[in-house]
Design goal:
The chain has a 4-stranded mixed sheet. The longest helix is centred in the C-terminal third of the chain and has 21 residues. The chain has 5 helices and 4 strands, in the order ααβαβαβαβ. The chain is an alpha+beta fold. It has 3 domains: about 40 residues, no CATH class; about 45 residues, no CATH class; about 110 residues, OmpA-like domain (60s Ribosomal Protein L30, Chain: A, 2-Layer Sandwich), CATH 3.30.1330.60.
Length: about 240
Amino acid sequence: MTAHAQEGFYDPSNVGSPTGKTSAHELFKTIGCPGRALLDKECVAPKEAPAPVQAPAPAPAPAPREADSDGDGVVDSKDKCPGTPAGRKVNADGCEIDSDGDGLVDGVDQCPTVYAKTANGCPPPLVLEGVEFDFDKATLRPEAAAILDKTAASLEHWANANIEVAGHTDSIGSDEYNMKLSQQRAETVRDYLISKGIAADRLTAKGYGETNPVADNATEEGRFKNRRVELQRMN
């Protein structure tokens, strides 16, 4: 061992040995960890510091949501009608829908499934010219039958249309009485049309009393015209 030290192969210095050298029985006592015997418990190597945990990359910020000023579901950059009133149905361009193509959008069209170039989108009522009633009567005049026969035939072309049969009176009598009389007149015409083959579930009778005159109630001729029945297509 001394020879080895002299030749530079081994340095017996040991700061854990009382003599400062590793020799003889001190070899048994100090090999392992400095200051511990060889057969002592295994020297626990100092723990390496754990690798720092890298924080996950932050999620990308969501893209800013495009504005939809009128709340119709179409963003402003694609909305060709950005001022649509709330609650209206719109197409992919953000413009209101006109289902029947009559120039009135569904939101203001009172008959949105019927093509009619009128102010409210509904076809004008069909006045049954010649179907008038005698004063205070709800029975049909003889000449009315031929007119209603032609009317029933024309209604066959409105196969899916629901129709209101509207009864009217002149202004003589109380409002309550005239309302009742106009209802009876409407039902008279409805029943006749049903007898000619028009489905009952398509026809609704409604009396309007004296509220919708078409002529001057100050004359007998005007009152005669006001005692009438009209047909109004409802869809």
